[in-house]
Write a structure and sequence with these properties.
Elements (H helix, E strand, L loop, with lengths): L5 E6 L8 H17 L2 E6 L9 E2 L2 E5 L5 H8 L7 E5 L1 H4 L6 H13 L5 E5 L11 H19 L2 E4 L2 H10 L7 E3 L21 E5 L2 H10 L1 H10 L4 E5 L9 E2 L2 E7 L3 H9 L3 E4 L11 H8 L3 E4 L17 E2 L9 H16 L3 H19 L1
Parallel strand pairs: 1-2, 1-5, 2-4, 5-6, 6-7, 7-8, 9-10, 9-13, 10-12, 13-14, 14-15
Antiparallel strand pairs: 3-4, 11-12
Helix pairs in contact: 1-12, 2-4, 4-5
Length: about 375
């Protein structure tokens, strides 16, 4: 039986800020409360965040400064609560090295050794070229991620590659790691119409830069997809690109702008395909845009190829690469890809993840009690 009733959740930001990790944490909290009556108390680890002290009935505490003393003071108010950390280094510190956060959690573990800590690694550490600051900061980012993993009773992450990185940071400890690709942040419809019954619409959804990449670098291929699938409308969703988008070769382009998730969901339920400008196919498991396309039964289309199977995803089976697979396009093949992508997604849907998080948090709390 699940006796867990409350949990601390440390996040970089929450709505109204536009933040994928914050959206993930809030959606998970909703589902944990709905399915298991687990209440989440959020701690926002960014002093510049501006929001309410309560969101949808969830209490929210914000640190007043990036200080281990400040965070430890907040955590000590309810020392019996387990902690779920949503970790992405750059969310808590500009250069991705939140030493204050790791110090606070280590001190908390020493003060309350019987309490539990679970970390969801949305990212582990950055890397880059020598002329990139991430290259020089990578050793410290690795050190901090390794310390956090060692302090955690259980680790969760969205990608198999991230799990391997965590193992490499802790070769002697071998922490227990669960891989859960992210879920859709804009809902999971219960009924999906087949592609043949939907409007001939294509969705381009994501941040401004990723959509600019689609329009500026791969729009020739997008137009080819539209021709083959007989698309007559493109819905552009997100912050305005600044381009003059209205109609291209008879295809109407509707700039929807930033709209509510319910409206995005309705648009997707009545669309055929969705294009991603980013991330690359090797990163699809951590993309909430890709997750939304899968959950809504769209044909996910990437602009970059990936010849390898990554996180159980195979090009041509779970998504199309519009730069390499135009010849294989058809509504019939698209429906097969849609079905495969949807089946892959169900293994880690929101309700499925809430159950897994509930089991992990409850098991760890029971072990430590």
């Amino acid at each position: 039986m699940n006796h867990l009733t409350n949990v601390y959740s440390i996040v970089p930001r929450l709505p109204p800020a536009i933040d994928g990790v914050g959206d993930y944490a809030l959606n998970l909290a909703r589902q944990l409360r709905k399915d298991f009556n687990i209440q989440t108390h959020f701690i926002v680890g960014n002093p510049t965040w501006s929001g309410a002290s309560e969101i949808e009935g969830f209490p929210v505490s914000k640190i007043i400064s990036r200080s281990s003393d400040v965070l430890l003071n907040v955590l000590s108010k309810y020392p019996d609560l387990p902690i779920l950390v949503h970790y992405v280094g750059y969310g808590y510190q500009k250069r991705g090295c939140p030493t204050w956060l790791i110090n606070a959690l280590e001190r908390w573990r020493n003060l309350f050794p019987n309490r539990s800590l679970v970390t969801m690694f949305h990212e582990v550490y950055a890397s880059g070229s020598p002329w990139n600051s991430a290259f020089w900061l990578s050793p410290l980012q690795k050190q901090l991620a390794g310390r956090l993993a060692r302090s955690s009773d259980r680790c969760i992450t969205s990608k198999e590659e991230y799990a391997q990185l965590i193992y490499q940071l802790n070769p002697d400890q071998k922490p227990e790691i669960t891989c859960l690709p992210v879920f859709s942040n804009i809902g999971e419809p219960e009924y999906l119409a087949p592609l043949s019954e939907r409007s001939r619409r294509l969705v381009i959804f994501g941040n401004r830069n990723s959509r600019l990449q689609v329009y500026n670098q791969r729009f020739k291929e997008v137009k080819a997809v539209c021709k083959i699938l007989q698309i007559n409308e493109i819905s552009d969703i997100g912050v305005k690109t600044g381009l003059n988008l209205s109609e291209i070769e008879g295809i109407s382009i509707l700039e929807r702008g930033v709209i509510e998730s319910q409206e995005i969901s309705l648009i997707m339920q009545d669309s055929i395909a969705g294009v991603l400008g980013s991330p690359p196919p090797t990163e699809l498991a951590k993309s909430t845009i890709f997750a939304a396309y899968c959950a809504h039964g769209l044909v996910p289309c990437t602009i970059m190829p990936n010849p390898l199977s990554t996180d159980g995803l195979i090009q041509g089976k779970h998504y199309w690469c519009i730069n390499a697979e135009i010849d294989n396009l058809s509504l019939y093949n698209g429906q097969k890809i849609t079905n495969n992508a949807y089946t892959w997604y169900q293994q880690h849907s929101l309700s499925r993840q809430a159950k897994i998080f509930s089991q992990i948090l409850s098991c760890v709390a029971l072990t430590d009690s």
